[in-house]
């Protein structure tokens, strides 16, 4: 479990290290055991009187432009952070309601499933929803994440409180 202090340290380092012009809002930093994901918000496009389709395409273009123009500097910052925190760094950007995530880690996760759970995965594969059991399991996890976001947020907050209390306790 990653402590609040560790999260704050990483977020603070990125806040100080990222160029100010990259941050129309503070960077959103997400951390797990394998990866630090930095999501940046850049200024939205201004297209008065344009259709929603035109705005969507302009936002996608702005995201692409940002990715290309900042690549070298992002790689340099990622290398520094990876050395400092021993975790891979992934990048993403938001422009208005358009979001993209680049170079993110797809970490293998081992699990043991009984036949009823395997049948669920096999049904998703047989129906063409997923290409493999692995894809089907990832699909299921995304679906739960979308529909149970509030509950998962409460659970993470509770777990973080426990981790903080443990950290303040006596050394083992």
Question: How does the SSE layout of this entry go?
Answer:
Blueprint: H1 4-17, E1 25-31, E2 35-42, H2 52-85, E3 88-95, E4 98-102, H3 115-126, H4 133-147, H5 149-168
Parallel strand pairs: 2-3
Antiparallel strand pairs: 1-2, 3-4
Helix pairs in contact: 3-4
What does this structure look like?
This protein is 55% helix and 16% strand. It has 172 residues and is of the alpha+beta class. It folds into two domains: 107 residues; 65 residues, no CATH class. Helix 3 packs across helix 4. The radius of gyration is 20 Å and the shape is globular.
Radius of gyration: 20 Å
Could you state the order of secondary-structure elements as H and E? HEEHEEHHH
Q: Please count the beta strands (DSSP E, at least 2 residues each).
A: 4
Helix count equals: 5
> How many domains would you count in the coordinates?
2
Give the strand content: 15-25%
Output the strand order for the largest sheet. Answer: 1-2-3-4
Q: What is the mean pLDDT?
A: 90
Any idea what the shape is? globular
Q: Low-confidence segments, ≥5 residues, pLDDT <50?
A: none
Biggest sheet architecture: 4 strands, mixed
How far do the termini sit from each other?
17 Å
Which tags fit this structure?
globular; alpha+beta; 4 strands; single chain; 2 domains
State the gist of this model.
This protein is an alpha+beta fold and 172 residues long. The protein contains five helices and four strands, in the order αββαββααα.
């Amino acid at each position: 479990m990653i402590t609040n202090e560790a999260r704050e340290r990483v977020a603070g380092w990125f806040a100080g290290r990222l160029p100010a012009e990259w941050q129309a809002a503070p960077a959103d930093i997400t951390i797990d055991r394998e990866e630090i994901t930095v999501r940046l918000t850049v200024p939205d496009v201004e297209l008065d009187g344009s259709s929603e389709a035109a705005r969507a395409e302009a936002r996608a273009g702005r995201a692409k432009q940002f990715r290309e123009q900042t690549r070298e500097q992002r790689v340099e910052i990622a290398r520094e952070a990876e050395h400092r925190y021993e975790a891979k760094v992934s990048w993403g950007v938001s422009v208005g309601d358009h979001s993209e995530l680049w170079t993110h880690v797809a970490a293998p996760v081992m699990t043991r499933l009984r036949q009823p759970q395997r049948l669920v995965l096999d049904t998703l594969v047989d129906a063409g929803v997923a290409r493999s059991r692995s894809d089907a399991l990832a699909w299921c996890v995304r679906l739960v994440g979308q529909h149970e976001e509030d509950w998962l947020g409460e659970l993470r907050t509770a777990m973080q409180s426990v981790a903080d209390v443990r950290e303040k306790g006596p050394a083992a």
